[in-house]
From TrEMBL:
It holds the Pfam family Lactamase_B_2. CDD domains: RNaseZ_ELAC1_ELAC2-C-term-like_MBL-fold. Residues 137-174 are annotated as: Disordered. Belongs to the RNase Z family. Its EC number is 3.1.26.11. Keywords: Endonuclease, Hydrolase, Metal-binding, Nuclease, tRNA processing, Zinc. Residues 557-750 form the Metallo-beta-lactamase domain. It is an enzyme of class 3 (hydrolase). One of its GO terms (biological process) is mitochondrial tRNA 3'-end processing. It comes from Jimgerdemannia flammicorona. It catalyses: Endonucleolytic cleavage of RNA, removing extra 3' nucleotides from tRNA precursor, generating 3' termini of tRNAs. A 3'-hydroxy group is left at the tRNA terminus and a 5'-phosphoryl group is left at the trailer molecule. Residues 156-170 have a biased composition (Basic and acidic residues). InterPro entries: Metallo-B-lactamas, RibonucZ/Hydroxyglut_hydro, RNZ2-like, tRNase_Z_dom. This is ribonuclease Z.
Length: 806
């Protein structure tokens, strides 16, 4: 029976790595930060057996990849997933109710509330160890005051376990009832139910797609019905009315159905709780003794296998041979420990915990085979921590994950190699991702470390059974474009036809650049467009999900959507200091609609912005308005028509960005889906479609645009799929740009069915193809169509990694 641990990811500013424990029957994951799903795809880590995910912290650095991971697991056929972690885990999951639902899977949460709380199944026994910072003070109980609008005390909690119609805010529930209430929300989100049976009445069938369902549930196309949605009030838990009108001259009467909005959540308070885990595998069976079996009269055959499986066998003379007679003594399963210590403030709690002390012993059976340390800045430098590490025994392997001591190597090698190839066309428009295969600091520079200590790295593997072995498979394929013997460079050198054509294309583009330099400067020439993510639905090896950055000189930055992993894309493009500078100038984050692939990265982006802008009052004021603007865009209809505070925020936002016009229009995709038009005082206009079918409203608002950034999810022969899923084909997107009279059209949001091969078009000389991390000034957009000839050669071999997820 083989079992092993594999590291997915690295200790980076993007988040903590994931630790995956492999058994034949199941896999177990510890932490799931943003980008984990994409790294699993990159490294061919299969997900379907992933039934249990443990979290060391309910913090975005540890849980940011959970929503996307759950949806992918459901789509791959997983029926049940259990999430285990600390306080507020259930609240976190319930907070995603606006944009996550799957009817084919159930999700349960378990919150460890005391030291030693245990998880156990056939493969693992896992005990939780709760750590708190040394300055932590438990919150005081809420004051008891009289609520003038209620017959109950405002500081008391109801004991009932559910809320009936008309009940007050769920804050009034007891802690137990609040937990049950949130778990019910989670159950509604992941119902694990088969599709509802088709109703005889086609009009009611259309209504069933929405009534009692999720706000983003797709509305079924019913030939005999016309469905209209009367928008809700905008309040959580509010109701909307679904009107279904029969077609055909009013023969069928209109029917109305109540559609409930997402339920309210009780308020929660952050708890700085960190959980480490002490884990032990199953007892390892002793070896079979064939000599003992022969002595007992049993000849070699299938009965040997039955005895090794723990079954007794009976000889022809009636003698019963039991497994213990022919098997050696079993031994305890391998122990491994996962430590999370985000700051030095947690060290005293960790050192004082008896849960670790019992494994710091001379008893080999109690010693862990490996301890994985996920450490924040300043922890490994603490002498007391290193002394504590050494207490585990000389044979214990230590794996240290700490940002400064881990090489910041390329995690997405497939994309980096693709970018290296494209850089032959223009290394400024297609920059190679930033990386460093040498850590900032070396562990060897620290005194008093255990002798078996190694830095954590992506794909680092530790075998638990049958014997402990540490291996570094990723070292053979590290991306290093400076090394002529590296795999990346060798691949590029074999592309003789492409390299020759790239030289011709560069010369051709240089002539265009010279012409542009001689002409009079045009409005918007210096605006920089960076397509951080150009794929749809789920990330792939080559394309991350949606995000486009606009950098407006002397005014600030705009982020158009922010799918999961957006911060990581920025980090690989700009480096740590570059990202900090970019986020300090962030003025607007526009979320086009509530599908997860367009906004799951917003939390990380805004969190890092908030940290970086703490000392910049003007930036804080502008981006605090951004959050309300985003709320207005996603929840209140067309932004420009809103009254009151949102309208005031828009006026202030326009001033910061130098805009004369900022308009949003609803587009044809799902409820609350919008496109946006930004028109600058200097005369340029940039339009972003979000996800949509061809939209006349977008054409109207974007008339004479300088740049149209438009989705082109499907190829031209897939019109029916585009109709069904509310997207555009390449031809349709180009035609929108032509009707809009856009000077340049930039196509993005390609189906991940084609993760490597872009969708090309020869329609006009004003159309360009977007790639991840492509960085282009508006004045340089005419270069993009010139690259297509070389790209067709580069991508002439059909990609064998297509998938059917759109």
């Amino acid at each position: 029976m083989k079992s092993y641990i594999r590291i997915i990811g690295n200790s980076t500013p993007e988040g903590v790595p994931s630790i995956v424990v492999h058994f034949d029957s199941k896999k177990y994951m510890f932490n799931c930060s943003e980008g984990t799903q994409r790294m699993c795809i990159e490294n061919k880590t299969k997900l379907p057996k992933m039934g249990n995910i443990f979290l060391t912290r309910v913090d975005w650095d540890c849980v940011g990849g959970i929503p996307g991971m759950l949806m992918s697991l459901a789509d791959q056929g997983t029926k049940n997933v259990k999430l285990l972690g600390g306080k507020n885990l259930t609240h976190f999951m319930a907070a995603t109710r606006h944009f996550i639902y799957r009817t084919s899977m159930s999700v349960e949460t378990h919150e460890f509330d005391h030291d030693g709380a245990e998880f156990k199944d056939e493969n693992l026994t896992i005990r939780s160890v709760i750590l708190l910072p040394d300055d932590y003070k438990p919150p005081s109980p809420p004051p008891i005051t009289i609520d003038p609008n209620s017959a109950t005390l405002a500081g008391t909690k109801r004991d009932h376990d559910s809320m009936s119609e008309g009940d007050a805010h769920p804050d009034s529930l007891s802690p137990v009832a609040q937990m049950n209430y949130k778990r019910q929300i989670l159950s509604d989100m992941f119902s694990n139910q088969a599709a509802a049976p088709v109703k005889v009445d086609e009009i009611e069938r259309a209504a069933a797609a929405y009534t009692g369902g999720h706000p983003l549930a797709p509305l079924e196309k019913v030939p005999g019905a016309d469905v209209r949605i009367l928008e809700p009030t905008g309040e959580e838990g509010g109701e909307a009315i679904l009107e279904v009108h029969g077609k055909g001259g009013g023969k069928a009467p209109a029917k109305k159905f109540v559609m409930r909005g997402p339920k309210k959540l009780p308020r929660s308070k952050p708890v700085p709780q960190v959980i480490s885990y002490v884990c032990q595998g199953p007892a390892y069976p002793g070896k079979f003794d064939p000599k003992a079996a022969l002595t007992l009269g049993l000849k070699p055959g299938k009965e040997y296998g039955r005895l090794q499986q723990g079954n007794s066998v009976t000889l022809p003379d009636g003698t019963v041979i039991h497994p213990h007679q022919v098997m050696g003594s079993s031994r305890p399963g391998a122990i491994f420990i996962i430590i999370d210590c985000p700051t030095p403030a947690y060290i005293p709690s960790l050192l004082a915990s008896p849960a670790f002390a019992i494994h710091q012993t001379d008893d080999v059976k109690q010693q862990p085979k490996v301890v994985i340390h996920m450490l924040g800045k300043g922890v490994i430098e603490d002498e007391k921590y290193r002394e504590w590490m050494k207490k585990f025994g000389g044979e214990t392997q230590h794996i240290v994950g700490s940002e400064d001591y881990c090489a910041q190597s390329i995690l997405f090698t497939s994309h980096a190699i693709a970018q290296l190839k494209l850089s032959r066309l223009d290394d400024r428009i297609f920059p190679i991702p930033q990386y460093n295969n040498i850590p900032l600091k070396l562990l060897e520079s620290l005194p008093n470390l255990p002798r078996n200590t190694t830095p954590l790295s992506n794909l680092l593997q530790f075998q638990l059974e049958p014997s402990p072995v540490l291996s570094h498979p990723e070292q053979q394929s590290l991306f290093d474009h400076h090394n002529p013997k590296s795999k990346a460079v060798e691949i590029l050198e074999e592309l003789h036809e492409y390299k020759a054509l790239a030289i011709d294309v560069r010369a051709e583009v240089a002539k265009i650049a010279a012409t542009v330099a001689q002409r009079e400067k045009r409005p918007g020439d210096d605006v920089v467009i960076t397509t951080l993510g150009t794929g749809s639905a789920i990330p792939s090896k080559y394309r991350n999900v949606s995000a486009t950055l606009l950098e407006i000189p002397d005014h600030g930055n705009v982020l158009l959507d922010a799918g999961e992993g957006t911060f990581g894309q920025m980090l690989r493009l700009m480096g740590v200091e570059g990202v900090e500078a970019c986020l300090l100038d962030l003025r607007l984050l526009f979320v086009s609609h509530l599908h997860a692939d367009h906004h799951l990265g917003a939390v990380k982006v805004l969190g890092r912005w908030n940290r970086g802008s703490a000392e910049r009052d003007s930036a804080r004021r502008s981006a605090s308005n951004v959050r309300d603007v985003v709320k207005g865009v996603c929840g209140c209809g067309e932004l420009w028509d809103e009254e009151g505070e949102v309208r005031g925020y828009v006026a202030q936002l326009k001033k910061f960005l130098g805009l004369t016009t900022l308009k949003t229009v609803d587009v044809i995709h799902c409820r609350w889906a919008y496109g946006i038009s930004l028109e600058h005082a200097s005369g340029w206009k940039i339009v972003y479609s979000g996800d949509t079918r061809p939209s006349e409203k977008l054409v109207k608002v974007g008339l004479d645009a300088t740049v149209l950034i438009h989705e082109a999810t499907f190829e031209d022969d897939m019109t029916q799929e585009a109709l069904t899923k509310g997207h555009c084909t390449t031809r349709e997107a180009v035609e929108v740009g032509m009707r809009m009279n856009a000077s340049s059209t930039l196509l993005t949001h390609f189906s991940q069915r084609y993760p490597k091969i872009p969708v090309f078009t020869n329609a006009t000389s004003s159309v360009g193809i977007a790639f991840d991390m492509m960085r282009v000034r508006v004045a340089e957009l005419p270069r993009l169509p010139r690259f297509i000839r070389a790209m067709e050669v580069l991508y002439s071999v059909e990609c064998d990694e297509a998938n059917e997820n759109d």
